[in-house]
Amino acid sequence: MTGQTTVGSPCRIYGRTTETAAVEALSDQLRSRRGGALLLAAEPGLGRSALLTRAADEFTVGPVLRPRPLPHNPRPYGGIHALLCAAAEEWDGAPPRYAFGRGSSAADLPELLRQYAPGDEPPLVCVDDVHLWDAPSRAVLGAAARHPDPDRPLGLLLTITEHRADDPDFTGLPLVRLGPLDDSAATALLHDLTGAAVDTSVRAELLSEAEGNPAVLVALAQRLTPDELGGHRPLPRPLVDGAALWATFGSRLAPLPAPTRHLLLLAAAAHETDPEAVGADAALVLRAAREAGLDPAALDPAETAKLVHHDGHRVTFGSSLLRRTAYTGVPSSQRRAAHALLATVIDADRYRLRHLLHLALAAQGPDTPLAADLVAAAAPGTPTSGMERSAALSRAAELTAHEEARTARLTAAAEYARLAGHSRTARRLLAATRDGTSPDTVHGRTELVRGSLVLRDGPVGDAYQALLMAAERLGPSDAEAALEARMEAMDAAWAAGDADACLSALAETPLPALPDDLTVTEAPPSAAVPYALARHGTHVRSDPPVPPPSHDPRRDYRTGLRTALAGHLTEAAPALRRVVDRALHDDDPTRLLRAGVAALVLGDIPAACRANARALAVSRARGLAALTPRILEHLAYAELRAGRHAGARAHAQEGLRAAHRAGQRNVAAGQHAILALVASVEDDAAAVAGHAGAAVEIARPHGLLQTVTLAEWASARADLCRGRPFEAAARLGPLTRPGPGRGHFAVRMLALPCFVEAAVMSGATTEAGAAVEEFARWAAQGADPQAPAQLDRCRALVATSDDTADAHYALALTRHDTAHGDFERARTQLLYGKWLRRRRRPAEARNRLRDALVAFERCGAPAWAEQTRAELRATGDSSAPAPAGGLARLTPQQLRIARSVAEGATNREVALCLSVSPRTVDHHLRNVFALLGVRSRTELSRLVHHAETGGAQP
Predict the structure, then answer these.
(1) How far apart are CA 835 and CA 848, in angstroms?
(2) How far is Cα 202 from Cα 219, in angstroms, rounded to an integer?
């Protein structure tokens, strides 16, 4: 027993929608007795052979001819002979009776094949790797495809390697290029390959390693054991070994001359010292080639084969998988020799770190002086990238025999990788540390890096515990890092919605001295600490804590948040205001982020937008890949609170891409929740469901209560927009009611006005009244500029007398004038207009509804605008456009009832929504059925859907 996972052989194609459609189109041509051809081009391992096999298995129009692979260096017309052999075997099992040679032409091929055909069905010829055929055979196939015989239709389905897709023999043929699988298709393939539960972080690493290549993913699944796939044992390194890569891509490299392969090894080795660079330094590679006695022209065959591109400055491989194959597909002794050669020709004074890295990669066994030189060359402030520093410290750790120093250097390497946005590399480096042998100084720093990683991609409860442990271990020796750990722990508790844990993390501890000018250039200030640990080992102590100045922004932030979380916002305001004011001229993105949080707590939404926008500008200017996704999340949320939905969508979409690149799924979940809220304004039901589902899929197992609350709020608001108050109330009830299991403490009150509206419309007036009283206590604290207007709107909804409701609606609109929220003002006007219409005050209702319509259209909220138009039509406003098609025959009241029923509402639910009796709904519904000629609610739902999505009308 090897312990390896048994890999199944999936018979289905993953993804490839466009490609399979092209193959099906070819089959349709043959079915209609028209010849056709299709050329499938792809790099090795991307599944062109699997697609061809699938097409051959499913073709039922006529016979399928699949010639056998040709030997190396086939004879002229060997490919055509193999095709004739396949035809002979298909029909009579005898050798081919006819030869194909110089005197034959492409026009003869269909006739020769027909000699074996017992019927008139058009055959499908499937040739895999047609580029391996001899030139005369390729020319015949290409000519036959370009000049089909209408009397003898023939189908040609050919596969070819990507770099030969422009072969002149096949010019003019329909060409489909297969690219890498997307994540969803690759995930489905991995699931079918293993049949086992794959840990989410392991799955993410496997997908990243395979780069969408199915063959590489198969090799990974074959190599790993179930325990490794489940995350119970560390993954082997490297994940894909040289043998597996060579099995897939070796066919591209093996035919090259030996000098060319040697030169490619030098190019791949030169790239190893700076993984983020685009290609390798061409001058360095060619100097090394000349030193090895190689002619620089040896690179030409690789360029001709489209393995690399040389632009005069950089040598770039066609893909990172090809580069890794060129590097790992040779013995380790050859790799070390390549690095040693590169180290001798590089300018050691100008590129000291890269020179040392090549020496380190050429070394065998521990080398203490070289490790120390690497650490010194990676010092903060040297002109190099974060990933080069990470690579240097990682290699220094490998050359270090002393376990404590080794762990410190691995931790420092992981921190630089994390800050550069390479979280998977950081996790891999941390996995190589041995916590049990490290002193508190090193172990505390390791837990800080680990907790920071998990905070952005993992269960936030685990992150909280790791960060508190880090703070405890770092406190006696490194107050700055301990403070950072506590602030990160507070962020974890906030994401989890645990106010008590937030207070614990914010507990008073001695603060380190505040430098006069504390700014971030490439990493937070504490990044110097892991470097110091990497250089000096465990003998590092920060300056002893000193009493902080009276207005230290860190103390203000901690004190203000702690006081606010304890329910005393008025007392917290001065300290938080000082944090916000300082951000006007600050250039530290972490402090700017915290200023944005302070502004949100104060209810100063414009200040939150300004602080986060400034943080984003600084982060972009300094290339802070790990911090940018979080900044974009904070900025998008602040813009959402400000009612700037287009800006919120743009920044959340950018943040989603940045979070995926940085491997920060928790941040990505938050961006999905924000996008769901934006879509609930625009009423893109599919987008709401998609983003909310994606957010919750990550947020629930990771304990992200804030994200879950935002996603459920978005879904409930979409329900309200579509006239489904019962569903909205059911979603929001558990989140907004007091007691255990409720929503996030910083979000639930923001969603309470939606719950009040849904509860009133669904008849739960008692619950709505209780919610209004709780909302009133919160609104009095001034934490949200929209709250006073929303409170009056809610009081109008639950009012028992018309005079009281009228007064509250009017007061709500007055207060909206000072809050600058067009969408919320429009919602108040819509509800007020509905209320006025039902009190038989149509003229006043039309004024309110017209204002609401203009505001909804300006906000880009088409479904809310359509709901407003329906109310306008019900007031007798002839300017409101009527629905098209059969629905135009309905009165406004009938149309509202038809839409509600189409959404699945019962007669009782419709009656509550429209403030009429169930008997009235039943009467109108009977008339609707008669007018539209339908006999069931199902037919009505189908008709309404077709009418409102532009489908056929009855």
Answers:
(1) 10
(2) 15
Query: How far, in whole angstroms, is CA 272 from its chain's centroid?
Result: 27
**Which amino acid is residue 655, in one-letter code?**
G
CA distance 646 to 823: 12
Which residue in 455, 513, 457 sits closest to 483, CA to CA?
513
Write down the pTM of the prediction: 0.79
235 touches 205 (CB < 8 A): yes
pLDDT at 102 over 70: no
- Per-residue model confidence as pLDDT tens digits over 521-552: 334 334 444 445 555 454 444 444 444 445 67
Are the C-beta atoms of residues 764 and 724 closer than 8 Å to each other? no
Q: How, if at all, do strands 308-310 and 314-317 pair?
A: antiparallel
- Identify any residues that bridge with 159 across adjacent strands, giving them in sequence order: 40
Task: Report d(CA 150, CA 604) in Å as an integer.
Answer: 75
Report the SS3 class of residue 902.
helix
312, 314, 315, 321 alpha-carbon torsion, rounded to 10°: -150
Q: What is the 3-state secondary structure (H, E, C) of 152-191?
A: CCCEEEEEEEHHHCCCHHHCCCCEEECCCCCHHHHHHHHH
Q: What angle do CA 472, 466, 454 make, to 5 degrees?
A: 150
Three-state SS sequence of 526-594: HHHHHHHHHHHCCCCCCCCCCCCCCCCHHHHHHHHHHHHHCCCHHHHHHHHHHHHHHHHHCCCHHHHHH
CA 434, CA 406: separation in Å to the nearest integer?
9
CA dist., res. 397 & res. 401, Å (int): 8
- Please report, for residues 382, 408, 535, the alpha-carbon distance to residue 376 in angstroms, rounded to integers and kept in the order given: 10, 14, 7
SS3 254: coil
Summarised one tens digit per residue, pLDDT across range 400-459 is: 998 889 999 999 999 999 998 999 899 989 988 865 567 888 889 999 999 999 999 999
Most confidently predicted of 87-91, 152-156, 491-495: 491-495
Collapsing DSSP to helix, strand or coil, 308 comes out as strand
Task: List CB contacts of 524: < 8 A, sequence separation 6 or more.
Answer: 419, 484, 590
Please tell me what DSSP assigns to residue 297.
G
Tokens of 283: 């001058």
Q: What are phi and psi of 180, to 5 degrees?
A: -65, 155
Burial of 949 (0-12, 13-18, 19+ CB in 10 A): exposed
* Residue in the structure block whose two tokens are 């590489």: 216
* Chain centre to alpha carbon of residue 163: 30
